[in-house]
């Protein structure tokens, strides 16, 4: 349980604390299985007080999903001092690592969007759009980053879906059964991107 002295937290800080606890628990269980009672207990507050900050369980879950999307964008942002091709590789390395480390949470994030909740879909789409724009910038085509109807944008967006699914399936295999090492997976994904751009 977190320090009980934090009962004096501001409303905004309390909301951040509760979302942080949700993100922590999301590592081991899907979003729809998060226990509101367990989260409230971890924060040292009552279940009723949690609903003072989040009107419903859905509101809380969506706040956690939004935070997961922001975290993904933050941790996959490479060092801007690197050359563009190195930034692309580093982003991909961090993307695969993020999925591998938080596979359950990531699948929950993806399937939360696939479940059709409008806000969850919006969060997922915004996150994917953010990654797509980064890749386009690293590829030297930032002018199409805000043109989702362009061929280049659509190809990169689709490639991210391919890479995401590949990383999810790969990370779910026992290490001895994986057909790629991490480096080989990154190389394969980059090769797929460059081939796709030539079509």
From TrEMBL:
<feature type="domain" description="HTH tetR-type">
    <location>
        <begin position="12"/>
        <end position="72"/>
    </location>
</feature>
<dbReference type="Pfam" id="PF21943">
    <property type="entry name" value="TetR_C_46"/>
</dbReference>
<dbReference type="InterPro" id="IPR001647">
    <property type="entry name" value="HTH_TetR"/>
</dbReference>
<dbReference type="InterPro" id="IPR009057">
    <property type="entry name" value="Homeodomain-like_sf"/>
</dbReference>
<keyword id="KW-0804">Transcription</keyword>
<keyword id="KW-0805">Transcription regulation</keyword>
<dbReference type="Pfam" id="PF00440">
    <property type="entry name" value="TetR_N"/>
</dbReference>
<dbReference type="InterPro" id="IPR054129">
    <property type="entry name" value="DesT_TetR_C"/>
</dbReference>
<feature type="DNA-binding region" description="H-T-H motif">
    <location>
        <begin position="35"/>
        <end position="54"/>
    </location>
</feature>
<dbReference type="InterPro" id="IPR050109">
    <property type="entry name" value="HTH-type_TetR-like_transc_reg"/>
</dbReference>
<keyword id="KW-0238">DNA-binding</keyword>
<protein>
    <submittedName>
        <fullName>TetR/AcrR family transcriptional regulator</fullName>
    </submittedName>
</protein>
């Amino acid at each position: 349980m977190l320090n009980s002295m934090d009962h004096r937290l501001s409303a905004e800080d309390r909301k951040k604390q509760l979302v942080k606890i949700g993100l922590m628990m999301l590592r081991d269980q899907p979003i729809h299985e998060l226990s509101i009672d367990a989260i409230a207990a971890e924060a040292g507050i009552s279940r009723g007080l949690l609903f003072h900050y989040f009107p419903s369980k859905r509101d809380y879950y969506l706040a956690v999903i939004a935070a997961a999307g922001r975290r993904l964008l933050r941790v996959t942002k490479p060092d801007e001092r690197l050359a563009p091709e190195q930034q692309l590789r580093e982003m991909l390395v961090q993307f695969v690592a993020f999925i591998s480390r938080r596979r359950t949470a990531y699948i929950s994030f993806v399937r939360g969007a696939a479940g059709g909740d409008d806000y969850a879909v919006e969060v997922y789409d915004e996150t994917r759009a953010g990654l797509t724009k980064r890749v386009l910038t690293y590829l030297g085509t930032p002018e199409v980053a805000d043109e989702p109807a362009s061929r280049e944008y659509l190809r990169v967006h689709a490639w991210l879906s391919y890479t995401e699914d590949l990383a999810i399936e790969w990370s779910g295999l026992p290490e001895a059964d994986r057909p790629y090492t991490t480096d080989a997976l990154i190389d394969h994904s980059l090769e797929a991107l460059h081939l796709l751009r030539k079509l």
